[in-house]
Amino acid sequence: MAYRIGILGATGAVGQELISLLIDRNFPGEIVPLASARSAGKTIECKGKTWTVQEAGADSFKGLDFAIFSAGASISRDMAPIAVREGCLVIDNSSYFRQDPEVPLVVPEINGEAALGSKGIIANPNCSTAIALMGLYPLHKEFGLVRFFASTYQAASGAGALAMAELEDQLRAWSKGEPLVVDKFAHQLAFNVIPHVDKFLDDGYTKEEMKMLHEGRKIMSLPGLRVSCTCVRVPVLRAHSISISAEFERPVDVERARKAVAAFSGAELVDDTANKAYPMPLFFSGKERCGVGRIRVDSAFENGLSLWVSGDQLWKGAALNAIQIAEYLHERGALKIG
Question: I need a labelling partner for 117 at 20 to 30 A (CA). Which of 19, 45, 92, 305 fits?
């Protein structure tokens, strides 16, 4: 059994991770890299294999069994319906379909069954949401989540390959005493933190910050969940971290919380402060699970816990989660061939 798999946005940071992960995880299929006209004809080399990138167009999805989109909201808006009409399932990494009531928003460890009811499009959550929920969801199951406050520490990888290159270039320029070029971020990222990710809304929050609320509600089926989030870009190349203070319905217990996290398939418990062991992006880049630690009784909430989560933005925050959705469907015989 082998699928024909389209990767739309194949030359981007997430697209390259998708190709690498599909090979590493032995997903049964033939990869078809798709991108804009600007990238058409380029070659991609990975794991000893080479592909020629094809221009994405109206005819690109004929004969594909499913496609993973990582080319931005406007491309998903225009191309996903075309793909569906050709019988191609779409797993979309953009924000465009996430709040569409007809489109499931899926994290397989939490609500994988929602993918089974799709009408041709399945949405992947925002990177920070997916990573935060790897710490929050097992605690929700144990104690009943009511609300949480979060501050994110988002790596350059969240803004793409060119943003990662910009941070590296700034560090090199600084070491040589040369001017630092700012293009992909609102300000210099090297030796700085920027409390600004995505566009500001009228209420002072950013679109990125509100995703934590709206997507968290949808994925966990908690319409009354309350969230306040501040998203911050930090000079880390890869892997986001999130500081969370959460309030629960039932009395909390730290040891029960640790056991719940340790038993959850999406998390790795790293919580031994006596030995300076806690999750850090340095050690959770290129890892399937997200690290959860610094679990403690929150000093502001009556039934509260504070915690820290680190996870790979390009993996669980994007490419890996999309592939896990495909794996979930494949294992249940819900992916069509031909």
Answer: 19
Compute the mean pLDDT over every residue in the chain, rounded to the nearest whole number: 96
| Residues ≥6 apart with Cβ < 8 Å to 296 | 254, 305, 306, 307
Active-site residue list: 127, 240
- Please provide residue 154's backbone torsions phi and psi, each rounded to the nearest 5 degrees: -95, 130
What letters, b where the CB count within 10 A reaches 16 and e where it falls short, cover 128-144?
A: bbbbbbbbbbbbbebbe
Q: Which tokens go with 10?
A: 């194949």
Is the pTM higher than 0.90? The answer reads yes
Give the DSSP per-residue string, 237-258: SS-EEEEEEEEESS---HHHHH
pLDDT tens column, 159-217: 998 999 999 999 999 999 999 999 999 999 999 999 999 999 999 999 999 999 999 99
Per CATH, the homologous superfamily of domain 3-126+318-331 is NAD(P)-binding Rossmann-like Domain (3.40.50.720)
Percent of the chain that is helix, strand, coil (3-state, to 5): 35, 25, 40
Q: H/E/C letters for each residue in 2-41? A: CEEEEEECCCCHHHHHHHHHHHHCCCCEEEEEEECCCCCC
**Residue 163 contacts by C-beta under 8 Å, 6 or more apart in sequence?**
156, 157, 184, 185
Give me the CATH code for the 128-312 domain, please: 3.30.360.10
Beta-bridge partners for 310: 241, 291
Question: Distance between alpha carbon 241 and the CA centroid of its chain, in Å?
Answer: 12
